[in-house]
Amino acid sequence: MRLVVVGGVAGGMSAAARARRLDESAEIIVLERGDHVSFANCGLPYFVGGEITTESKLLVQTPASLAAQLNLDVRVRHNVTGLDAEAKTVTVEAAGETHTISYDALVLSPGAAAARPPIPGLDSPRVRTLRTVGDAVALRDAVTAGAQRAVVLGAGFIGVEAAEAFALRGLETTLVELAPHVLPPLETEMAALAADELRRLGIDVRECVAATEVVHGDSHDTVVLSDGTRLEADAIVLSVGVRPDTSAFEASGVACERGAIVVDAHGRTNLPDVYAVGDAVVSVDAVTGSRRPVALAGPANRAGRLVADTIFRPGKARPMPALLGTAVVRVGDLTVAMTGANRASLGAAGISYRTIHIHPNNHAGYFPGATTIDLLVHFRADDGLLLGAQAVGRDGADKRIDVIATAIRGGLTVSDLMDLDLSYAPPYGSAKDPVTMAGMAGDNLLNGTLKLWYADDIDAVMADRLVLDVRSASEFRSGHVPGALQVAHTEVRDRLDEIRAAAADRPVAVMCAAGVRSYLAHRILDQEGFDSSMLSGGMRTLTATLGRRGSALLTR
User: Fold this and answer.
1) What is the SS3 assignment for 424?
2) pLDDT of residue 8
3) Are 532 and 525 contacting, i.e. CB atoms less than 8 angstroms apart?
4) Residues 14-42 as b or e (16 or more Cβ within 10 Å = b)
5) Would you state the pLDDT for residue 295?
6) Which residues does the chain have with pLDDT short of 70?
7) What is the pLDDT of residue 548?
8) Where are the chain's structural domains?
9) CA separation, residue 374 to residues 331, 338, 359, 396 (Å)
10) Using the 8-state DSSP alphabet, how is residue 270 labeled?
11) pLDDT (0 to 100) of residue 37
């Protein structure tokens, strides 16, 4: 058996390593177009920022180490330009020559290439992507050579990490994003927290704007934005997305969908004995059923292993799971994590859902160092099936998202979160863990104990309902919704007649700082016959959702 793997790093190397563990006799050839077949691409921004201090730390394996440990024939700087499925060969360019290599089984793991929009001036040597070790070394060299101003185009995961890296090195950094907010997969109210933290780091965040030109200069370049702003830059990172790097294989007959390779549940393409894994492959979304590439290292590693199982142990191979897209990124002192679907994907799929926002502590409040986790959970409207979650916090956000990701994979409902037996000690959590509290809130919403209104509804709420603010008088004076009636939550029972008169047969929209006190007031009002609902997430979510408009809206 000769197995040829095209592309290393996550998917390809996982397939090759697993194949060797399953079959000591197989001839396994790995063809990698770049200089490095196994490197920590997720660590590149941290090398630029100086937290990873040496280039060698980025190199997980080398051709020599892979040959010694796994008897793999790894060939770097070998570019595969096509395949012949009938002859079972691949065409390879290396050292200025072209030749063919035969295979019995072929695994394609070409990955994704950085998208390059048609912006004049992107050919400047100061413009780099951040996809390879060479990219990271060049950017770090620019920093150490005295670069003082950096512009990052694109505020996805890599863009945010690159901007943070430059800021940590003391560069004047601007982060430019065409979408309405940074980290576009995040919901607006969660992205606002990330943007605020980026600004705290000194990063100039520009949203809803695009680069239109890069003007080359002798000592620096100038990035021109669509709003007319001109940004001088000594280093520019292009991070506006990726595209599957599959053109050579699509031209050779591999079936693709919008450029991504189509595979079955075991990684098989439409061609016999040809498989594909990684960023260049169409994946199925576990929640919505939509089809798209998912450029994440974890799924690529798992897919490589499963494809090797299919090739060498076809009767025992497990199918590839549909993906949740669970991801995490550090933003300054915050951790931003997400799993499953967001509002946009749920809306596109026509799935009816409900959402809760809670703001619990990461661990017991009486233990020193407790900080807030902002947690959002989406679940199906009719039965509470978990659909997605996002969390932002200084500590513990990743843990809670991983728990919810596991719950989604297990087909649990939001109410089931109440029943999870999670670890507790004061330094690590609370007896009511944030995940548990999310389950309680979701269950209350499903069974009618809780009725919610949302920050996006603020205009309709102000027009048609009495806004009842149950914070303290001093909190109320610090900023409140115009026309709101302030009644501290501890005074609601004694002032029911006043609230009833102010409502004048209108529904009552209760709100507080974070949703705890308004829930208590809502339960009182509901049992007293009021048509009551409470603001999901309270003022904390309202201000994050409304952004600059919130500052103008609130009365002081």
Assistant:
1) coil
2) 86
3) yes
4) bbbbbbbeebeebebbbbbbbebbbbbbe
5) 87
6) none
7) 80
8) 2-34+77-112+243-312, 127-240, 333-447, 452-553
9) 14, 12, 5, 10
10) S
11) 85
- 238 with 127: CB under 8 angstroms? yes
Considering the segment(s) 127-240 as one domain, its CATH architecture is 3-Layer(bba) Sandwich (3.50)
Residue 226 neighbours by CB under 8 Å, 6+ apart = 209, 210, 211, 212
What span, in angstroms and rounded, lies between the C-alpha atoms of 386 and 388? 6
Amino acid at 344: A
The hierarchical CATH code for the domain 333-447 is 3.50.50.60
Contact predicate 426/366, CB 8 Å:
yes
CA 334 to chain centre: 14
Instruction: Residue 108: name the closest of 276, 302, 296, 312 by CA.
Output: 276
Contact by Cβ (8 Å): 136, 130: yes
**Phi (first) and psi of residue 451, to 5 degrees:** -120, 135
CATH 3.50.50.60 fits 2-34+77-112+243-312, yes or no: yes
Going by their DSSP bridges, the two strands 204-207 and 172-177 should be labelled as: parallel
Which of 319, 318, 336 has its CA nearest to residue 327?
336
Angle at 238 between CA 234 and CA 244, to 5 degrees: 160
Place of tokens 């939509």: 290
Selection from 235, 21, 279, 243 nearest residue 145 by Cα: 235
The terminus-to-terminus CA distance of the chain in angstroms comes to 75
Beta strand 211-215 with 221-225 is antiparallel
Note the CATH number of domain 452-553: 3.40.250.10
The token pair at 424 is 């507790």
pLDDT for res 539 = 96
**Strand 327-331's sheet: what is its strand order?**
327-331, 334-340, 386-393, 373-380, 353-358
